[in-house]
Each structure stands twice: as C-alpha cells, then as structure tokens.
Amino acid sequence: MxxxxxxxxxxxxxxHIIFAPVNAFFKRPTxxxxxxxxxxxxxxxxxxxxxxxxxxxxxxxxxxxDADTCVRCGRCTAVCPAWTAGQPLSPxxxxxxxxxxxxxxxxxxxxxxxxxxxxEPLVGGYIKDExxxxxxxxxxxxxxxxxxIEHVPSIVDMRRYLVMEQARIPExxxxxxxxxxxxxxxxxxxxxxxxxxxxxxxEAGINxxxxxxxxxxxxxxxxxxxxxxxxxxxxQSVVKLLIEAGVSFGVMGxxxxxxxxxxxxxxxxxxxxxxAEANVENFKEAEVKRVITAxxxxxxxxxxxxxxxxxxxxxxxxxxxxxxxxxxxxxxPKKMEHGATVTYHDSCYLGRGNGIYDxxxxxxxxxxGVKLVEMPRNRERAMCCGAGGGNxxxxxxxxxxxxxxxxxxxxxxxxxxxTACPFCIQMFEDGIPGVQPNEDARSIRxxxxxxxxxxxxxxxxxxxxxxxxxxxxxxx
Length: 476
Prior knowledge:
CATH class of the largest domain: Mainly Alpha
Strand content: 5-15%
Largest sheet: 4 strands, parallel
Number of domains: 3
CATH architecture of the largest domain: Orthogonal Bundle
C-alpha cells in the first residue's frame, strides 16, 4: 500500500502533497507583482542567450517547477478578469501548456535532439500570442492559487520574447511603446503638457512649488495624472490638499518622464531599463529621498523595482499619505450636505500588489455623511478594472473587462465608485456609460478619493469644479 501510494503520488495530481510545500518554500520573497530585471542585455545577446522566454532553457527552474506543481484545479482561471470577460486567456492552461511542452521536450533532450526542430514552438504554438496579450498582470491568479504558482512572471517573460526576439506585438501596444520612447509618455494625441495642470492652478492664484532638493517630498504626478484630461483634477486635488496641510513638497513639472512601467509590462524590458536608469540618475541629481505618488503603478515601480537599478526611496501612495494627514488632524473633513453612498474599487497594484486596503477606505469613512458599501469582489479578491498589463493601450475581444467591473459597482446602489488610481478612473469613465448608456438615468460616477476629500475639506473651491468635472448630487 505504501509503494502504491508513492506511485500514485508520482503519476497523478496527488504529487501536490509533496510539490506544494516545496513550491511554497521557494516562493519569491518579494511583493506579489514584482518583476525581476533581466540583467545585462548586451551580455545576453553576445552570449547567444535569448531575450525573454521562448524556449525551455529560457525559464528558471522555479518557473518549470510551477508547471509540475499545478493540480489543474482551475481556481486561477475562475478569477481571471480576461477569462471572465470571454477573452482567450486561462492562467491554468498557460501553466499546463508549459508542462505539455516540457513533457514533450524531455524525451527529445534525453535523445540529444533539439525540441525546436521537432515540436511546434512554445510561444505562438503551444501558447497562443493572444492569450499572453490578454493578461492584465493583476495577480488575481497568483492570489488564488492554493499551491502558490506565480503565473505573471512567466507570462511577462514570454511577452519579452515576443517583443524583443520576435517583434510580434499588437499594433496599438507598439504605438504606446513608440510614444514612450519618442515622447516620454504612452499617450497619443494629448493636448496637455506636463505643466498644463500647474498653469491652471497658478491662474487661480495657487502657487505650485517646484522641487529643488530642499523640500521633504517629491510629488510625482505621472503621465496619466498630467496628460489625461480627466485625471488632471485628481492631481490638482492632491496638490491643494498637500498645501492645505502644510506639507513640504515640490513637483518636477516638465522634467518628469515615464517611469517605464508600461514598457516593462508590455515586454520591452530594454526600454524600461533605459527609462529606469535615466530616472534614477535624475533623482540622484535632484537629491530625491521621499516620493509621493497618486498612481499605484508608479508607486509599485519606485518602491519595489527601482531598487534593482540603485534607486532607493521612501515611497508613499497618496491614499496612505492623505489618511495620515486626516488622522493627525492636518486635514479636517466637513460634513457633506446630503451625504453620499460610495463603493471603493481596489486597484490591483495598490491592493494585491502592495497590500494597501485600509487607508483609502479610512479616508472615505473620515468624511462625515459618506456611507461605504462594498462590491462582492473586494480587497485581495477585487476584480481588475481591465487596464493592467498594458491593456490600457490594446484592443479587447469579447466583453470589455471594465464594463463588468462598472456593472458590479453600479449594482451596489452607490452613487459614487471611488478609487485611488488614475487608470482605474479612466476605465470606469468608459465602463459606466457602457452599462448605463442613458446619461440622464446614470446612477453612478467615478472619483478619486483625493477629489472627494477635497470636496469635504474645501467645499467652496474644488479642483473638480475648476476643471468642469460634473459633481453628482449629494457630493458637493
């Protein structure tokens, strides 16, 4: 019976009894959505090694062990936003296809043959390109996996192979990469500059300090916060609140450029490394030590990934920073005239990626008159807005992920869906009209927590009103 059990464990899914604890032991001791650098890419090219992962030897032993550990339970696929929306991605099948390729390659390698000459390619054959591009890198699959498989790093490694080795990338994603390389941001056709929002505030008599190294904090605005019209009021709200609380801070204005996160998630590691090295050097020259950012992607990149390039800073997301100011009495919210029912959407890179769940909710709950209700999927099991993994700049097949999430928010009965991410705001701005096309009957609007806090702290003058953003009844 003992030997039979050993045989069953080796040949069936019961091997997870041994494999799962081993996989858990070797799980990366990093934040869940952290991506490791590839190293010196010039050396990789000179040595003949591939860029990214397109062949068996390109994966780490841990990534291959993940494939052996998978028990095909399907929990990762069940929570995947792309799969839920009917798009061609099943995280379970990605891992299983890696395992099939590994099993088919093993006898050929033992026989001294090259699997690439006999088998169809792993990327583009066993695993289709469209499956890799549908990934939001949101980490829901990693969060849910009972045997602690890490799907996202393997998917991004295969994207790196597609982009840097094969030059196979969706046209819209390629356009975003070209914009980052040529313009320093991924947006095409923006009418704003990185100082437009500053000029608007200064025209209203509000002086925005420039960072010169003497201030305690650098407020990093980010591409979306400066160049997307809907997100400019968020940036202005944060700045007004920082000024109101007497925080010592400054902004870089035109000296800002993309931090490289979209390029990295889309697979262009070389472009990301170029942007990261340039920003680290600029921060060093400016003597930056503490950073506040309103974008979870900027936050995650500066906090968790720039240290690999020598950039080590104290990084705070504005959700944590504003909560701290409210708790210390530096900001004092006043009662909203009619109150508001608010549901909060957890950004993937703020929540699952960095464990920040409570502070944005505490900011909302500190506003008298706000009633907070939760969506069925919240906190570590919240559903992605659909923008992650570079999908902000890609076309979608099937149902749009942001439409599904917008419907979940609307079904709570809340009049406001609040978030702490400019990308999520954009996705809700598109998703809400998709599920409630009649503007007159539209029951919910999307706002950043900073906008709502500013309405409460400074009701007479808000960035939302200044920018012409409609404020729903019951907020102002």
